Amino acid sequence: MSERPDAVETALRALRHRDRSTAELDARLEQRGVGEAERQEALETLERIGYVDDERFARSRAERLAERGSGDALIRDDLERRGIPAELVDSALAGIGPERERAARIIERRGPGVKTARYLAARGFGEDALQKVIAQED
After folding, report:
1. Looking at the 3D structure of the chain, how many domains does it have?
2. Are 28 and 11 in contact (CB under 8 A)?
3. pLDDT (tens digit, 0 to 9) for every residue of the chain, 138 residues total?
């Protein structure tokens, strides 16, 4: 009998505290020395029973980042780094509401100005949102 826990157990431990993408779990299993075939089988099992769902993960992660004041570019980058396919990233971004509205709430809270524009730029907001700050300052 192997001393190493099986791939499904290892993946379930990784999911204990937070949701993860398929790519994140695959990388974690690979780091633990799990072979490719066993990793694939474990991930398919977890997807089939609903423990791993990249669409759900992308949607939830995008919502959480948007609530924390992140712009579309930052959210896109975060999801892509986690191995989420482009079509799921686009779908998740479409579901969180317009970036311009999120920027308007931040501008309302922080006030217009250069500091707010820098803040928005650092948080991944696009040119459209930054122009709104500049227009309000005039």
Report:
1. 2
2. yes
3. 444 568 999 899 989 989 999 999 999 999 999 999 999 999 999 999 999 999 999 999 999 999 999 999 999 999 999 999 999 999 999 999 999 899 999 999 998 888 998 999 999 999 887 877 777 655
Buried b (16+ CB within 10 A) or exposed e, 67-104: eebbbbebbbebbeebbbbeebbeebbeebeebeebbe
Identify whether 24 is part of a domain: yes
Q: Give the Cα separation of 88 and 98 in Å (integer).
A: 17
State the Cα–Cα distance between residues 28 and 124, nearest whole angstrom.
Answer: 28
| pTM for this predicted structure | 0.86
CA 130 to chain centre: 23
Q: Indicate whether 77 belongs to any domain.
A: no
CATH of the domain at 46: 1.10.10
Report the alpha-carbon distance of residue 46 to residue 10 in Å, rounded. 11
Please, which residues have CB within 8 angstroms of residue 90's CB and are 6 or more apart in sequence?
A: none
User: How far apart (Å, rounded) are the C-alpha atoms in residues 52 and 11?
Assistant: 10
Q: Kindly state whether residue 26 falls inside one of the protein's structural domains.
A: yes
